[in-house]
Amino acid sequence: MSIEVQLDSLSKLSWMIVITSMIIETSHARGFPAYNIFIGFLGVSFKSKIVPKRSILLAIGCFCTLVTVSIVIDIIYCLLWGKEILQGLNDATKFSFFLLVLNSILKLFAFFYALTVQISLSVNQDVDLSSRLETIRNKIDSDLSLGDDIDDSSIFTAPVRRQTMNANGNTLQTPSNVTST
Question: Is the model's pTM score more than 0.85?
Fold first, then answer.
């Protein structure tokens, strides 16, 4: 599955999170968590061009962290208030509580989609990075390759050709090969 399809699925799930979060907020009997709307809009932002491609890995990592924390907080909220909501309050509040549970399940699916996008992007980035490194290594190897290997022991005994020039730049003499000292 391509990254664009995964981002599209994440965007659809995030819109569902936004919609269920807004419906949850219509119940005025109990203060339901309102941070879910923010998490939904954050998930939608990956499909749009709001998040630059070079920083999408960091943004998806932050999204996964926020979703994990919000699921834990939703579980704590359900444990604290669930029994009271289901036993004694009106049907609208019960429906909002049901939507809160559904919203947590949607966030769990969004977490897994975001995780697959992050893994796909990091694998593509690793492949791209390794191909760049290989290109750089080949370039360095070709630039450093002089054709023949140089024997370091013969550097000081190699013949040196010297030319003597006068003030006009004309060559006066070309001595025979002289070894350097």
Answer: no
